[in-house]
User: Fold this.
Amino acid sequence: MGLEKLRYLDPYYYFDVLWEKYVGTEGVLKTVAELVYTLFLAYLIYYAAGFLLHTPRPAVIVASSSMVPVYHPGDVVIVRGITPDEVNAPEVYLDIPYTDHVTPEQAGIHFLRHGIKLYALEVNGNVIPLEKGTIVVYRDDLRGRDIIHRVILKIRTPHGYYFITKGDNDETNPTADQDCVLGYCVYPFLVSQDQVIGTPIFVIPRIGLIKLLLMPSSSR
Assistant:
């Protein structure tokens, strides 16, 4: 391919051709049109990436320090869809009734801590040591945000899978998301498989800091 043909790979080439043909004038109007066209391309790329990666949110901004040192605030995480079978974590079977929101107490899951620091889970009298499973992005449907945390327990039920999750940073997230030991928890219910958006595949460091300054609650 000759160098002159590379212009056909530039999406703005087609904009310039059409603008010159049908409008022709330079100035503020063209600048505004270029901005609109840029936003259109960005959304097109975003949704095309979501289609290819099998997830409605192919990119998520890390908004807190809960996953340090793996991810830092401002990192943009690229996400692909994931099935429950791909989630790696200690697994238990529980015959719990179907409901939109299930608390750990309703499922018979207890958190074992030294102070407020989690070290194990107890399910049906069995102690399950804390292990680091697959990192997932899930939707917090109470606060309307995306949370990037690690699965520490995988729960198989007659109605599908649920998960217990936790941030890696023990300083900011000493216990599980679903453990309301201090009267507050990241997310009070078991995470259902339908809430899981995907799993990170790579990270672009810190490029989301500007958006965090403008929208500090966009994700976690």
User: Anything to note?
Assistant: The chain has a mean pLDDT of 90. DSSP finds four helices and eleven strands in the chain. The chain has two domains: 3-53, 82-197.
